[in-house]
Amino acid sequence: MSIEAINEQLLRAIGVGVALVDLSDLSFSFRNDTFNEWFGDPDPTARLTELFPDLDSQTLQSEMLDDGRMTTEASFKLRRRTMTVALEFSRAQNAHENIAVLVCQNITRIKELESMIDSYSMMVERNTHEIKREKEQVEKLLLNMMPRAAYEEYKTFGVVAPRLFDPVSVLALDFIQFDAQLTQHEPGVIVSELNDIYSAFDRIGAQFACQRIRTNGDSYVAVSGVPDPNQDHAMAVANSGVRFLRYLARRNDSHPIKWVARIGVASGSVIGSVVGIQNYIYDVFGPTVGAALHHRSLADEMTMATDATFAEIVAEKFGALPSDDGTHVLMRDLAENA
């Protein structure tokens, strides 16, 4: 057996498609069995561009003249399945022969794996984005329930240790004749009104380092000095209370539903922590909170009430008037002096 015959048998036996392409007319002078299995029975009139319509024949000719090599890929249907092959053209070493050796390797599985990896990467990226979005939503909800410092402690340790904050100031607000409002309006209207008002209170309080701790119906409780110390905690809640009442007064001028509030403020110490196991919430406790609630019950319409100690701290900015019975101080002329 001649060397040429042995080479031909080897080319027919290997698992890659091999063909010899006449570069003058792009016809085939040889095709092994694998090549024929992939691209059909030999046809003396078949041309390279007929098997590979997307192949740029001019580029092929140019590459064969310059480097003598060119690689590309092609996909085609083979028995209802899309097959992808890597095409490698190498010009024959004999300069007198205008022939290129075409070697085709089946890379379908590689492409399928690459596609699976791409799909998996996209799925991981999409899931990561979804987890990040859900995490941000949870964080936002938790920050509505507790101060950021408490949230950071909860996120790190899983608990928020009870802490004594001293001194701080507490503001307690509620609405006069709230029960009458409930009977006169639909529940949805009341909720919408409270949401509008409490959102405005939150924005105002943030301007003065006064943070809402909780709401319970018409009861709105805020504190300054928790969890971050604030030397001007009394002025913070006084300023916030003044703006709360001004906001309500202006709102009542243009809204059909009128809201009349009263506010109690007090300074002292509180204990802050997260309470509850499943429906947990950050809250503050202590006699100062009780004092603010008590003063609130003594306040007149659209005024703040406090004790003499608190009134003395803010006296330079806010006017104060002792009550007739001497049990508390009413801060009546807030709008003129704030």
From TrEMBL:
Q: Where is the Guanylate cyclase domain?
A: 169-296
**Gene3D superfamilies referenced in this protein's UniProt entry, alphabetically:** Nucleotide cyclase
Source superkingdom: Bacteria
InterPro entries for the chain: A/G_cyclase, Nucleotide_cyclase
Q: Name one Pfam family in it.
A: Guanylate_cyc
Annotated SMART domains: CYCc (SM00044)
| Protein name, UniProt field | Adenylate/guanylate cyclase domain-containing protein
